[in-house]
Here is the input.
Amino acid sequence: MSDYLLQLEDVHTYIGMAHILRGLSLALRPGEAVALLGRNGEGKTPTIKTIMSLLPPRRGTVLFQGENIAGAPTHQVASKGICVVPKGRHIFPALTVMEHLRVPVVNKKYRREDMLKQVFAIFPELAERKNQPARSLSGGQQQMLVIARALMTKPRLLLLDEPMEGLAPVAVKRVIESMKAVKEEGITVFFASASCERALAVAGRVYIIEKGRIVYEGSSPELMAAPEVQQKYLGVRE
Amino acid sequence: MTSLIITQILNGLTIGLIFALVAIGLTIVMGLMEVVNFAHGSFYMFGGYITFFVFSAVGSFWLGLVVAPVACAILGLGLYYAIIRPLRKRHPLEPLVALVGVAMICRQLIRNIWGAEPKLLPIPFGRVQVSLAGAEFTYPIYFFVVMGVGVAALLALYLLFRKSDVGIRCLAAIQDRDTAMSMGVNVDRIGSLMLVIVMGVAGLAGGLVGPIFSVYPTMGLELIGLLFVIAIVGGLGSIGGAVIAGVTIAMTKSISSIFVSGNISDILAYCVLLAILLIRPRGIMGLATVME
Ligand SMILES: Nc1ncnc2c1ncn2[C@@H]1O[C@H](COP(=O)(O)OP(=O)(O)O)[C@@H](O)[C@H]1O
Ligand SMILES: [Mg+2]
Here is the structure.
C-alpha cells in the first residue's frame, strides 16, 4: 500500500456534456491538512463531489486507502471513512440540531453516545441548542452543526467546500479553530477555498486548481513566499 | 340543524383522516424519489378489494383489514423494484408514463375479475346515541372506529418520522438527498422501506372505506387528483401539511353539502385549497418545514 490516504490519478469528470475536471491528480497523506485553492468556477466543488462520488468521474482513479472508489455509491464512500461539509452548508431545514446528528450512519465500531460526547466537546454551542430547529441557528452555528454532522460518521478524511465563505469574522475564527481541532484528532482535512490568506491559517500544504487541472503544488510557507503565484492563479484577473 | 352540522363535521373528520393517510404516502414518495406516483390510488383500491375478497371468502371484514395492508405492502415493494427504482433517474416523463400505465392496468384487472359495479361491504356495528352541544342524534359506531384507527396510524407515522433513525434519515433525504447520502445514508434502501410502509397504509385506508363508500374499480383513479392537491397544498414532503389539507378539504365538502349540492361542495372544497395555495405558494408547510 502507498503512503497516501487518498490519491486522485488523471481524473476526468463531466457535468452533463461539459468536461469539468481535465486530468486532475493529487494526493493526501494521513493526518495532513491540505487546501485546494482556485478562483470561482475552476472546479473545486466538482473535485470534492468527485471524491464523494456525487459526480462520479468518467475516467481516472480515486484511491482511498489503496482501494479504487471511483463510481462507488456515495453512501458506501461515506461508510469507508470519507465525509463532507458541502458548500453552502446544506442543513436539513426542518430538522433540529439533535436530529441532524442522528442522520449520519455511525461506523459499527463506535457508539453514537461516544461520538455525540466528542462532537459536543468540540462544539459546546451545539450542546446548548440540541432541540432547536437548525434553520433558527446563525450562519456560524449552522457551519458548526454541519461540521459536527460530518464528524458523527467518524471519518478518516474530512472534505470541506469553502467552509469559511459568507461568515462573519468571529464565525470564521471558530471554523478555523474547529478545523484545527479536527486535524488534532488525527483526521485528514482537505478543503476548498478561494481565499489564500484564510486557507494558509489551517493548511500545511496547498494545491491550486485552474480549468480542472492542478497547476501548482507546494507547502504553505512556499506559497506565502511566492506572491507572483498567488497573483497569477488567485488574484484579481487583469 | 345543529345535529346535522355536527354529523357532517364528524363525517368530514373521518373522511379527512383517510384522505390524509393516503396523501402522506404520496407526498413521501414524491419527496424522496422525485417520482410522481400516479399508481398510488391503485393501492388504495387494492386495499378495498382485498378486504372485500377476504370478507366474501371467509366472512371476516376485520381479517380483510389485516390482510389488505400486508398484501399492499408487498405489492408496493414490487412496484419499487420493478418501476420506481429503475426509472427514477431517467427523464421524469418515463416513470410518470409507466405509473399511469400501472394504474390503468390495475383498474382493468379489477374490473375483469369483479366487474364494474360497486361492491358494498356491510357496515360493522350499529349506531350510537350521541348528545353533543345540545343536539341529540345517532351516529354509526364504525365511523368512530375509523377515526380511531386513522389517528393511531397518524401517530405511528409521527413516531416513525420524528423518533426513529430511519424516519429522520428519510426526512433528511427528502430535504437534501445528496447530503443525506454523503452522511452514509442508503437512500435506496430507505426508499424500498417507505414504499412498503406507505402502500400498506394506502391498503388499510382502502379497506377502511369499503363499508362507507363501497369499493369499485375507479376508486383509486378518482382519488388520485385529490391526493395530488392535498400533497401540494400541504407542502411536498410534509406530513403535518397533508393532514391539515386532507381534513380541510373533507370538512369543507361535508359541511357545505348541507347547504349546496354535492358537485358545488366539491368545487367549494377545491376553491378553499386554491386560496391556500395562493396565499402560501409552497403549500401550508412548504418544503422547509417538513413534519411540523
Ligand atoms: N450544472 C452545470 N452544468 C454545466 N457546467 C457546470 C455546472 N455546474 C458547474 N459547471 C461548471 O463547472 C466548472 C466549475 O464550477 P464550480 O463548481 O463553481 O467551481 P468552483 O467550486 O471552483 O467555484 C465551471 O466551469 C462551471 O461553469
Ligand atoms: Mg465551488
The pocket of adenosine-5'-diphosphate (ligand 1) is lined by residues A 15-16, 18, 20, 38, 40-46 (CB under 6 Å). Chain A has a mean pLDDT of 93. The first strand of chain A starts at residue 6 and ends at 15. Residues 207 and 217 of chain A are 5 Å apart (CA to CA).
